[in-house]
Structures
1.
Amino acid sequence: MQADIDLILDDAQTSMQKALSHLEYELTKIRAGKASPSMLEGINTEYYGAPTPINQVANVSVLDARTISIQPWEKNMLAPIERAILQANIGITPQNDGVQIRLFLPPLTEERRKELAKRSSGEAEQAKIAIRNIRRDAIEDIKKLQKDGLSEDAAKDAEKSVQDLTDKNIGTVEKILAAKEKEIMSI
């Protein structure tokens, strides 16, 4: 029975870790005034009939704190990449000079900063919901074990371990969110 409890706790920890990783990935997409190639992740362009990530058809680099350069490996890819960026609606208009595309990030207004902080907060809330759902599933599994003969004390201890794991991971979500909000609100 203890092996089953350990397995449930390990699964819960792994799943919660994935939720935290997903949160960090989603927060990297929210720009905080600094140019980053990760802002273009998830944007696909049409490449010989197949949707392909921009970083697989072009060299994406950061020229300075507010400028991203996209240099396609094939000149005929300039227009599709430009179109994909416009359709992605990331709030930046691409500048095409015939050789490369430049993305100039405008300075963030106070209103836009608050909007980005609110979006970050929403992502953090999604992570918390995922962690709570993982907790619920783990506790249900423990209750099933209890029906199969696990003692009540062992079940209570296991549930407490799951709750401690949940509290720890939600605390981590709060720290990640606070760091992102600080990054967004700093000028």
2.
Amino acid sequence: MADAAKRLLIVLVNTDPRNGEELGAPFYHAAVAAALDYEVDVVCTATAGRLLKKGVAEKLEVKAGADKSVYDFIKEAHRHGARFWACPANFDLFDMSESDLVPECAGLMSTTKMITDLMDGECRVLTY
């Protein structure tokens, strides 16, 4: 069992890629937690699952006119050690395959794995 005090699971489920101002905080929080040596997993599911598709986050801005895309936030968090996970259900929902995922995505995290980790006390959780 992982030390729940050292693992943070960030779940992006209500965060809508069409609202750029919603996208900075979760990825910034992931970067900070990872930089503080916490084990960080970020699961993008539902509409937020689009963010892990190549080309999507690159076109999005947190603030209009900023020189940093949402994808830059994802890459920064990844550089600090955050792991990104796609929801398998998003493949059907958005006509995606694993080859469509950004290279920072570690793979798929099933709902079963996420719920089991939560219920077994494997991690602390932030949801967006």
